[in-house]
Amino acid sequence: MATAVTVKGQVTLPKAVREAAGIRPGDYVEARATALGTVVIEKTRTDALGRIEHSLEELRRRGIFASMSAEEILRLTREEE
């Protein structure tokens, strides 16, 4: 399914693609280019744990090792002094 890119760089995901991926209005997606020049669009989690997991994945993809899990980081942010 082809779709045009607007002058603002926006694209519309076809309905069949949104339905297959479970993407609904208000959901967040991540778009990234691969080394081969293709583009991958993935639905992402929007809760705190999902955002932390996404950040850890990005660090690992860049070769930066993160020794803590997303759950450990989230616990640290919720601890009271």
TrEMBL record:
Q: What SUPFAM superfamilies has UniProt attached to this entry?
A: AbrB/MazE/MraZ-like
User: Where does the source fall among the domains of life?
Assistant: Bacteria
Query: Can you give the residue ranges of the SpoVT-AbrB domain?
Result: 1-46
Query: Which UniProt keywords are given for this protein, alphabetically ordered?
Result: DNA-binding
Stored InterPro entries = SpoVT-AbrB_dom (IPR007159), SpoVT-AbrB_sf (IPR037914)
Which NCBIfam families does its entry note?
A: lp_hng_hel_AbrB (TIGR01439)
Protein known as: AbrB family looped-hinge helix DNA binding protein
Give the source species.
Labrys wisconsinensis
Taxonomic lineage of the native organism: Bacteria, Pseudomonadati, Pseudomonadota, Alphaproteobacteria, Hyphomicrobiales
